[in-house]
Protein 1
Amino acid sequence: MVPHLTTALSGPLLELERRFLEASPQIEQWLRGQWQEYTPPFYSSVDLRNSGFKLAPVDTNLFPGGFNNLNPAFLPLCVQAAMSAIEKFCPEARRLLLIPENHTRNQFYLQNVAQIAAVLKQTGLEVRIGSLIPDLDGPTTVDLANGQKLLLEPLRRQGNRIGVDGFEPCAILLNNDLSAGIPELLRDLDEQYVLPPLHAGWAVRRKSNHFAAYDQVANDFAREIGIDPWRINPAFSVCRSINFHERQGEECLVANVSAVLDIVREKYREYGITETPYVVVKADAGTYGMGVMTVRDADELIALNRKQRNKMSVVKEGLEVSEVLIQEGVHSFETVHEAVAEPVVYMIDRYVVGGFYRVHTGRGKDENLNAPGMHFEPLAFETGCNLPDYRCGNPDSPPNRFYAYGVVARLACLAAAVELANTRLDP
Amino acid sequence: MVPHLTTALSGPLLELERRFLEASPQIEQWLRGQWQEYTPPFYSSVDLRNSGFKLAPVDTNLFPGGFNNLNPAFLPLCVQAAMSAIEKFCPEARRLLLIPENHTRNQFYLQNVAQIAAVLKQTGLEVRIGSLIPDLDGPTTVDLANGQKLLLEPLRRQGNRIGVDGFEPCAILLNNDLSAGIPELLRDLDEQYVLPPLHAGWAVRRKSNHFAAYDQVANDFAREIGIDPWRINPAFSVCRSINFHERQGEECLVANVSAVLDIVREKYREYGITETPYVVVKADAGTYGMGVMTVRDADELIALNRKQRNKMSVVKEGLEVSEVLIQEGVHSFETVHEAVAEPVVYMIDRYVVGGFYRVHTGRGKDENLNAPGMHFEPLAFETGCNLPDYRCGNPDSPPNRFYAYGVVARLACLAAAVELANTRLDP
């Protein structure tokens, strides 16, 4: 099933997609050149927003958690891409240890873990799941809603190597974003590859580094195919030393929100766009849509009530927010069953392997859909975002729209590669 | 639809398949190591024979001609694998020239060409089709039975570069096996990649070189997973300086056929197999199942009548046969709708991307199914031969049988890589 797509603005969007389709030999060649220079992360998922006049990534996840939501028909694509990634990172690997998040009660997340393990097994690896849960005292089988079972085993460290009982892996794949910090257990390992590297975790990673790398990627790409980089790149700014509780850094926030809104207003004027500009203020480190706020006017920041300040000050694992990203908001004009939707594209290595729509029935087109308590209704794309349909030539046909999604998602993946190359564990 | 499989002997076959499934981490690791050392051909297809007690390649085609017969669901796999191949051979390529065979009246073949072109276009390359047809004086559109059109353009050489009018490609993909010799047009090109290399064509290539390389691959692999290499490797021998018309080299043929039959008889005794051993005598260079003969006793070679001698003496493009391969025959115990069937597995780069059954309603289990005038009934595999089903653990389930096919096909692909590394254009 291809979800029904409605695009409010058809002109400029079609123009952008048509440009991607026409330029696809150039785009693919350019990307191949980039992949010679930068190593893509093992896997990633990218949240896109499509406003009709703009198609841009708003978040790039290096520990993707929704593989269970992909169309099952894409499994062979995932396996082939994973084979290519393993060949690059650790060709001699036979055994791989997967380290998931600790939340064992989230059935959706556990099905994602099972799906990742299934893909890796299909590449011919022996796969076991090592858990960071502190009080897991022995192998524990978890029943999944789909009838499968998942065996979680306590991680054991011996000298400078990590594993689970009777299993010494050559490679370790993290599906844990390290929001709680980098466990000592995982530091200074000896000849065991950790994928993605530890500094990809939120203990070290900053969204602002990612979007700075994306600036570079988007500018190079836009020059290459002759478009305004703003069409694929949300403006952003950063404030450090924020304390929402104590109202520290408010001036920085106000100034930067105003600055970003000014850039956006100017662009809207240039393109004759009548929508109301907005920015999204979010924690510079962290995930799960926590610590996120939509702002249409800088004044809103002065009048934050206690509840709003509390909401902004803490993200996953109780991490205190002191650095925030101020990102241009991109309206979502895509709707699925009359609810606002945003596409999420999944990649393994440099290959797009599928995607789905995140749908929120209770939110507006300028709101964050990855919100706590959201009604999450993933709809798998029928097409894999990697195959444009040249025969029909209509940019509004799903394969062609999805090709554009696949291109922008790969630009974000490339930005993550640049970001990881430019950052390290102990900066 | 998965074709219904019937396997007459279940014991040893299941044992072999079970061995492959159990050893899959080892197999995949070993293959990854081999691909670090050898570069797979751009694409290939492998004819397999499955006798229950033996699963072996009998022919490896480096200019595969049946992409149109694959399950359309495998298209994304083909595209991803082709992206990987292009990235390796010619990352900077934007334009690719496809050179097909000259037979423009074979609708099946032309659909194959269209399918290859479609896959390459989906990777983002500009693709044109350059024809070697000598009397093609301008661009010619051919209508295909499926409603598509194919534009054939005359090849033009300018200096040391080749192309078609207004199109200078960076890469040239041959789907022409060069049975007619290497055209001057294609020699000594300047900075244009020719894929596969010219010495992969039948003007230079010898099946005996391929199977000598396969001996090495099969022995290494068999040692790795602890099986008798004969279980996956047909015994063979070669006679050069044969002239069927003038009955030259008959003694060599008789001696070598006897020798191969002796090896097979000994093995049959060892495994308690009661089938009648046979060998297949075929041209050492050439394709399309021409110049092929089944022999159960060396005496049959002495009494060849004129018709049989004529049949053996010429292959495609009227090439005179003077070198023959004497290959152990592998019975086919697979039947589809009660007709004898042999699996054909397709690969792009080192990835299995699908396969189908070649079915012959009028032939026995020890006969060549790739025969002129055959009733060819390709049935696409529903599974891609790359995903074993570990959950069910039953080697007789189609995904697991197909995994075994995928493994043996990749061994043949590896042998082709070794063969191409060990041979060259002007030996």
Protein 2
Amino acid sequence: MGFKYTILGGDKRSLELGKLLMKDGRDVCIYGFDMLEEYNNETVSLNEAIEYADVIVGPLPFSTDNLNVNAPFSNKAISIDMVLDFMSEKQMIIGGKFNIEHEKKLKNKNIKSSDYFKREEMQVLNAIPTAEGAIQIAMEKTPVTIHNSNVIVLGYGRIGRVLSKMLYGIGANVHVSARKYSDLAWIKNYGYISVHTKDLKTYLPKMNVVFNTIPQMILNKELLKSIDSNCLIIDLASKPGGVDFEAAREMEIKAISALGLPGKAAPVTAAMVIKDTIYNIIEELDV
Amino acid sequence: MGFKYTILGGDKRSLELGKLLMKDGRDVCIYGFDMLEEYNNETVSLNEAIEYADVIVGPLPFSTDNLNVNAPFSNKAISIDMVLDFMSEKQMIIGGKFNIEHEKKLKNKNIKSSDYFKREEMQVLNAIPTAEGAIQIAMEKTPVTIHNSNVIVLGYGRIGRVLSKMLYGIGANVHVSARKYSDLAWIKNYGYISVHTKDLKTYLPKMNVVFNTIPQMILNKELLKSIDSNCLIIDLASKPGGVDFEAAREMEIKAISALGLPGKAAPVTAAMVIKDTIYNIIEELDV
Amino acid sequence: MGFKYTILGGDKRSLELGKLLMKDGRDVCIYGFDMLEEYNNETVSLNEAIEYADVIVGPLPFSTDNLNVNAPFSNKAISIDMVLDFMSEKQMIIGGKFNIEHEKKLKNKNIKSSDYFKREEMQVLNAIPTAEGAIQIAMEKTPVTIHNSNVIVLGYGRIGRVLSKMLYGIGANVHVSARKYSDLAWIKNYGYISVHTKDLKTYLPKMNVVFNTIPQMILNKELLKSIDSNCLIIDLASKPGGVDFEAAREMEIKAISALGLPGKAAPVTAAMVIKDTIYNIIEELDV
Amino acid sequence: MGFKYTILGGDKRSLELGKLLMKDGRDVCIYGFDMLEEYNNETVSLNEAIEYADVIVGPLPFSTDNLNVNAPFSNKAISIDMVLDFMSEKQMIIGGKFNIEHEKKLKNKNIKSSDYFKREEMQVLNAIPTAEGAIQIAMEKTPVTIHNSNVIVLGYGRIGRVLSKMLYGIGANVHVSARKYSDLAWIKNYGYISVHTKDLKTYLPKMNVVFNTIPQMILNKELLKSIDSNCLIIDLASKPGGVDFEAAREMEIKAISALGLPGKAAPVTAAMVIKDTIYNIIEELDV
């Protein structure tokens, strides 16, 4: 495991990742942060940066234009094709959200690669800073404590599970809605009040905070009507989300779309999650 | 939902189920308990018992000989073929563990049926009396409290999840072993100590109780050697289980195979689980 | 319990209290908020406001100058002597932090009175918004999640108990320090890591957040030296608090004095706490 | 702390205590177990046994007849006066439940002594095996799981607190009754349903298990009438306890008096509790 790493582009989370790897005693080369004072006299070339490492760590997402590595803190473009050209078959590249074309090229060049964003454990671990970020928003935007409040989590997937556990731990009256009876059984088992999705209308009126995790329209005009005007809605589902925000505005219900919480609320934890996932990837390859 | 029910055979759990249905205000006919004093002057015939109900509720397992309904408290054989002959297309039959032949017959006769044992929510809910039964055994067979003991749960499926949560709630130092990194992430998220299966040997020596939920040989001679002689092993996996009992006996390690715990440790709860599942089945059919 | 109430002065928390009493169906007169638009055409006189009610509810603190009732949203001075003169023996006055002189006057006039701030249950309930406010600050000011962080709570009084429970519920590695062995036993019993005060030096270096609840100098220069520069200190003890802030600033350790959290982080909850306490006071008097 | 210990009399818990001290690497002399095969060729005299140690550890209770040390596994009487005569001022004696006369003699002889039973932390730690023993009984004697059952704990002292926490951790619907509003506030804070003692009659009818911890008559004939015939009552309060057992028998309500649970349900844990308390005593004396 005495691997050398090159952090290739990315935002501050990538930088934190580099620091965490160093703290673990790994050799790390940072490339693509020349806009930051700390790194602006980088003299190492892309070729050297690539050659340095056993493992090249790309950002999340790996690219935003499909041509260059996503590197918001670099004045230089980092061409994906060049990166691959510089790599040898002994090296591996790990990044987040490779697209199909990238993966095809990697395969053609016979370069070992892995997409950390596709890893189930990364999704699980990422749910933690997401949930905690959502709780922070609820604390900031309501005049009541979460303890003893009526809160409901819509959906019992990864984020729903982590979020409901934390809310329960703080002392809220936690409701969780789901459609599947087995999910409802799990919800009850963990001590929360289970709500079948079809019964939402009955439960919504007394809620202080509604957290949505379902990535499709769920809080439509109809359901919004049953929500109290003092209630806060926090939508954690990726765009377009699960809330009719326009209708909410008209009804003067506070509704917030909260995305990218891990990077915003807890960038160091977000970097740790990637680091742990990278270690798992490497360990599995070794075996 | 004003359905009438006939409880057709089964053990005391089926009888409890009948009582619970009555408590809920349902009309219930009990058939196949003539060996019990309370029911020994049953004058109703099988045909009448079948005709009486909208829903026929069979036992778990439905049959042990594939010919007759499983009815340990009846002196009369209850022929499955006769039951099906007496039924009409308006009725439905719900039982546990139908075999393929039964299901074929039901289909041929166009009779609505459902196997409650195949329902995911029943499996989840059944994990609760299983886990609690296992904890009771641990309390009875060890001279230490579970609180502050080192315990490990092997496997993080349904029973593993429910059991580790309860042990944690009592205050044990809960370890849970799994192979998948995503399971390990969940284990950590719930506050337990996660142990990769390959590292069991390191953790086993300091355990006070080992609960196995994995239905294949896991505690083999090799691993048993690392277990303390005061440790108690409780195997919850169905036969042949996951423990080399012979080797355990030779090493004088106490190992218990604990099966059928719901019916033994909490028959009324076990009946409730079936009742709730039946209600879910009926509700889904209605929709 | 069909009592009439007069809210006499106070800040927005008192106003929320009035609204909560009305929500419960009580008759409420609001006096002393003429600076707020909503109430600026109050035509009722002090005498009328006093006469109106069975229970006069004063603010927390009752007075800041010992002459007038504390009424930051009123242009008129509300003389305590006049209030008492207008009151009859059938009425009662409830306020927070009466001083000795007030209590003497109340006794002389034979007026029933009670200080809600002295009530143990109010102190307990107030610990909840305090703890939650502290957690909100920790979430805002650290780049890591509380989940899986190393946190320590200094002191195991009311706030310490509520705070450690919530931190544990979120998934932190909760340490709590105390001096008494019985407190240390309780700390262990609740699943936290117990730290004897004399061993703080050993535990502080690995902490991400330190919450102090002890109202005397505890984090002195000597102990601050053992704290990591990335650690956040939140001091919840009333002035002068338990942290050498000057030394912390010199060492570039972030230290925050967080006071009055209930009113700031959750004013509606803070009002509920007072309301519940008032109800308890009234119920006890009736008996 | 390199002290030598003599275990002087007592039951199997004292013997376990001796073994635990040895496991910790202490030198230990066992005296007063000659009825057990393992120790029946003890050749050491009482004088030698006393001289051997820095700390003499007596049983709990120290004496049952006020003349001799309580030693149910010894054929020889161990005179308290002789023990004290053999001791010097350099030694100390630690026991449980010294009576006033013993303490007077110890003082006269200038012998350091301490009563571990009087230590608050011992009472707290002892509440754990008591609570767990009570839960074991509830599991054994009811046909339902504790999970999802309605249970009530009468009294919120040490045992009440530990017991309600464990029941909650298993997933029961935990009710706790108390008289003081501050206790009721704590009960709510921990997530349990708080019941004022005067409202017991309203809550008792739907309970599956009632745990009493109050050492005075509480479940009298009147209240027993409101209890369901399937309900189980477990009385943990010392004799005469808090239940009218005669009335319960007449009404055919199952009521169990469960005393001495630590020694019965978890003798090794009970010994650990004494050991930890002894260490605390010694550490405090050193300082």
Protein 3
Amino acid sequence: MNAIEAVVVEKAKRAKEAARRLAYLPTTVKDAGLLAMADALEAQMAEILAANARDLEAGRLKGLSGALMDRLMLNEKRVKEMAQGLRDVVKLPDPVGEVVAMWRRPNGLEVGQMRVPLGVIGMIYEARPNVTVDAAGLCLKAGNAVVLRGGSEAINSNSAITRIIATAAYRAGIPEGAIEFIDRTEREAAQVLMRLNGYIDVLIPRGGAGLIQTVVKTATVPVIETGVGNCHVYVDEFADLSKAEPIIINAKCQRPGVCNAMETLLVHEAVAPAFLPAIAQRLKERGVEIRGCPTTLKFVPWAKPATEDDWHAEFLDLILAVRVVRSLDEALDHIYRYGTKHSEAIVTENYTNARRFLKEVDAAAVYVNASTRFTDGGQFGFGAEIGISTQKLHARGPMGLKELTTVKYIIFGEGQVRE
Amino acid sequence: MNAIEAVVVEKAKRAKEAARRLAYLPTTVKDAGLLAMADALEAQMAEILAANARDLEAGRLKGLSGALMDRLMLNEKRVKEMAQGLRDVVKLPDPVGEVVAMWRRPNGLEVGQMRVPLGVIGMIYEARPNVTVDAAGLCLKAGNAVVLRGGSEAINSNSAITRIIATAAYRAGIPEGAIEFIDRTEREAAQVLMRLNGYIDVLIPRGGAGLIQTVVKTATVPVIETGVGNCHVYVDEFADLSKAEPIIINAKCQRPGVCNAMETLLVHEAVAPAFLPAIAQRLKERGVEIRGCPTTLKFVPWAKPATEDDWHAEFLDLILAVRVVRSLDEALDHIYRYGTKHSEAIVTENYTNARRFLKEVDAAAVYVNASTRFTDGGQFGFGAEIGISTQKLHARGPMGLKELTTVKYIIFGEGQVRE
């Protein structure tokens, strides 16, 4: 075992030991830990901002883009928001111990399913230091230990933050090892973590498509895939166009850089002549570049022609691909072919078309007459979210505290044996 | 792409196409398919037995063990049981389409979770040809396509069976490609399957520890790990020994070769003098070899001394490791250290000890006063099972039809947009 491997294994071991006790720690103790973490972030603000300044300076030297520098940057307001985030988690109900179901078998055995923590969660993520605090808080509330591996750009910020919150949590009665941070930036450290079966129960990568693909391809530990969203809005021939317009503007423009933003608009040919020129104009006013199919170009002559790549693209920007389709079936085929199974919406007043879209589209979230931007733990009412799963195992869509747990069967007998 | 890869990809593609239609196929059509498959197995019995005879002949030449030959062997009775298994699946409720929960948000959006199929399931399994039929039936009922990859010993039997059931299903209205069988026995075929992200949604390996470890280490497709069980029964100082005896005999002897059989018995020192000699005698009468800790050897002088390996062992045989412990804590530590998180039982009349065992033991199934042998889909009331998950993601413990599904969020709006 080399030095990097030794560091990662040692941290994972400590997390695993902590997880055993965390699993049945009373909610009151976990909440006291969260509040202590929040207070410590504010009390040690200067230390965090100093560490962040070192990251920002290194980022400037490396020539990081303005967007990346902004994501990396902490100030008093942002640190206070991180602390408030932890206090908000205190208010959420503890998912651990809930008996999801219990039934009696003919032989008198009572069989139940109880919600329990996953154990040790490995988080591999990119630049934003607030993910460090969010993840640590949510994992702790759900009774999990967490091993954090942030991006190298934020190494000083993340080191300071985790030292501060882990110490505060420990002093408040949380087992040592509950929050571990890997302070080695070598790629090998992440690779070791991804293959630590027996120590890490689940890996949650958060970041760009490249990071997530690397984790999926490298990990032997089970992974919850998050992220990529090539989302569509389909304006049906029976759409109420007065609903379609605000939904489209919202889905594309309210926050274009996130995974639940719309990337392709599909419009039924029956409404295209009336609707496309108008909506294109509204989008143009908001700075949206349109890349259209040949039919779209007839109605929106100033649009660029769309390429095959555009139908596949997650632009994460003020760019929209637009295609005119001849039927609901053609829309469903397009979504099947190009979609990433994240969030898909139909705008229609037709009962049968709405039902077909709901049934036939295979995605984490399928909408009728609402913006795809609602795919979010907060918007769904979960109070918090650790990511949006785009895989089908375990969790699909926004993941809240419940998705950070598993279940175990509990069986009560009075001496039963199997015949 | 070489020839083997081409074969596997082609089959997975067909399965993926079938899965799209299977996802919303009416239950009546799926049930008609299952009944047609059952009828075809019986009608084409001669063809199946002839294919099986070729596998048995090859097995004899290869020198397969008696146990393996028995698992491989089909006869009229076994084929009829396979057909009956399919008819039993018809009687189970269809899990697809169930709305698990639905709630209204303050903005009027209605958010629900609907059960939907996983998509394409890859099954990699060993000798027994009945797994072919079981898996195909359960996957179909839950709306999934399945790509089957059985062991090379059963290649002729599995080829004949899948050809017969897939044809029967297709004639009954099931989409072509719903049941695909990989008839290449090269190791590479399995490896290609394990890495077909984008085609295969979930892999379920069934077989020995070696197979499962290979899949976990090789796969990039999400895996549901099944299987290994180093299960314990702990006889507490407050045990009702008249309950302990039948539970222990049952857990060890009723079917020693399965994953939910007991492998290690833990006995509190306070009851060891009275209990150990008696239970050891009963076990000996049933042919059980005992490997004990030094204290056990005092009470059972004829037992063999246990080695460190014995505490780790999944014997799957009439062998039992026995350890005397000084406390519940010592029992919990032993289980934490050596257990495989499958099935663990305490025998006690003490309320607090029972509660501590239930809370503190991390396993798929935790029992009070009942045999570990109940960890089984049929025994839990699921009607059927596709395996027993020993991982924490998605499914834990016996997996029935419900575990072969995922959920999607369905959202009903009237034009809502995000603020």
Protein 4
Amino acid sequence: MALVKVYVNYKKSILNPEAQAIQKALGRLGYDNIDDLKLGKYFEITVKDGVSRADLDKEINEICDKMLANYNMENYHYEIVETEAAQ
Amino acid sequence: MALVKVYVNYKKSILNPEAQAIQKALGRLGYDNIDDLKLGKYFEITVKDGVSRADLDKEINEICDKMLANYNMENYHYEIVETEAAQ
């Protein structure tokens, strides 16, 4: 089994009103140590056994490009964690 | 500067239709190696200098409980990455 953690974030040039609203609300609650807050998506994908690392890289990149991230507005990165058995 | 990465995921007992829809769509596209797909939120919080580790832990837990996660439906965990300077 492999667990793939995918992080999708807005590109720097893209405004994210939800993140801005949260940051402002934290300021109003007195948390004035917060310099910046970014909000993105986080996927945990469990992949079946028997997929080579090269195939897995190819597949994850395809999935991210096609479905998980909008390449006009978002960047993604991922990490692959090998696991012994299904959780 | 400290960078805090916060991961918010639905609890196991909570249905997540968005994650299910993505997983089914991947199956239809031929990605049948995917055993499970979870979708959560990912925050990157930059905290100003001069906050002790204990205060930072306290503050991040408060912020997560009050604002970033819904404790009825979601779990969170976080990691603190020390950084030299602002990005």
